[in-house]
Amino acid sequence: MRNLKTLDGYRQRGAEQEYYGIDGDGGNGVFMVKSPIDGGLLVIVASNGGGWDHVSVSRSNRCPNWPEMEHVKRMFFRDTECVVQFHVPTDQHINVHPHCLHLWRHQSQEFPRPPLWMVALEKEAT
Length: 126
Description:
Number of helices: 3
Number of strands: 4
Structural class: alpha+beta
Number of domains: 1
Strand order of the largest sheet: 1-2-3-4
Radius of gyration: 16 Å
Low-confidence stretches: none
Distance between the termini: 26 Å
Shape: globular
């Protein structure tokens, strides 16, 4: 994950005090970012504990869409980092907010990924 101090312009200190009890830092914080789609607010909570980088992204009226999640991924993670959204088994699903999605990156292991040829034929890739 990027050093979150570079995103201080989006940081919400009051929300950090409420959420964490302290100000955020280079790996943790609460942020508000405008959607690149419609200018609506994306509320972002970032953390880096337990061996994981984690960013939750929510909107008040709907789940964030793909372009919004991609925008947040580019802001909070380096271009070289593989970040995922998990779809866990139903019995392990936890829903605290109805319009929230999550980005995850393990700090010490690379995620296995399918070979590129399984994603798109070479002539189809752009």
